[in-house]
Amino acid sequence: MPETRSDEERKMIIEKVNHLYETSDLTIKEACSEFGISDSAYYIWKKHRNLEPETEKEETSNQDRENTSGDVDTETVKKVTELKEDKPFLGFKKISKQLAYSHGIKISTRQVKKILKEHGLEETDYPEPKDHPSRRFERNSSDEMWMMDIMHYTIEKEGRFYLISILDDYSRYIIAHGIFKRKTIDNVIDVLHEAFEESGLPGEFLTDRGSQFHSWKGESRFQKLLDKLGVKHILASPQSPQTIGKIESFHRNIQRELFGQKHFTSMEDVKKAVSDYIEYYNHERVHMGIDYLTPADRYYGVKQDAEKTYDV
């Protein structure tokens, strides 16, 4: 961060870092990187402004020391342990937020950690995946912009397969997906048709410069289809691959939360498990990046009643 930052600008950045740190599983260093500063600059700025770091969190922690898991009712303890056993990849903060969302249960991160430790589940806690630092951007409402990406995974006997996904930028809702043995333009177009038939048309469509989406010699089939439908195609800059970071993050999550947890030997099992996971992801799994709502909450909460017509 340039040293020409004013005191007011530094104070604002410090407050944003503090808020992200206090409401997520990120460390101070990781929270700083989200706003383009080093952790050393953060502490220097706080010292000069005489702002004690983590004041609110320390006060909360002191209260939590007095309010241990012994004060939590049996039903809440059961909910904590059941959620951890069912979703072992969830961190302490995510369990706390998920219980608040799904059951209206208010329980601190420290209490969750203590309960899991007492039940021998603490060692299964996985750190939350962290995105690469990038400049944050987000559209203002659902269907303003979708993005598409392809990931691959290899299973025993069946070999490699590809998951093609479409995600709404504003809500992180998965609009459509498909699983295929090859990542061909035909398969990409199939997923596009499914998305358009289910949800109408977005205003813009963001992809990387993969051969399925972009051609260096004239327009690709993908681009021609979007042009015909009046959808603006945006290509991620080669120098800034982070622009499709939201859907890449989704693919990292499914690698970690599904493929990293279960053993698959057939494509039929994979297809069912992925469909079930996306249903869970869209409608049940709270998302830190959208204030611990589910993608469906955000997508349908602002979705326009009048959708564009899909007619190809």
From TrEMBL:
Residues 52-76 are annotated as: Disordered. PROSITE patterns: INTEGRASE. GO terms for biological process: DNA integration. Residues 52-68 have a biased composition (Basic and acidic residues). Pfam families: rve, rve_2. Residues 129-303 form the Integrase catalytic domain. GO terms for molecular function: nucleic acid binding. SUPFAM superfamilies: Homeodomain-like, Ribonuclease H-like. Gene3D superfamilies: Ribonuclease H-like superfamily/Ribonuclease H. It comes from the Bacteria. PANTHER family: TRANSPOSASE INSF FOR INSERTION SEQUENCE IS3B-RELATED (PTHR46889), TRANSPOSASE INSO FOR INSERTION SEQUENCE ELEMENT IS911B-RELATED (PTHR46889:SF4). This is Transposase InsO and inactivated derivatives. It comes from Halarsenatibacter silvermanii.
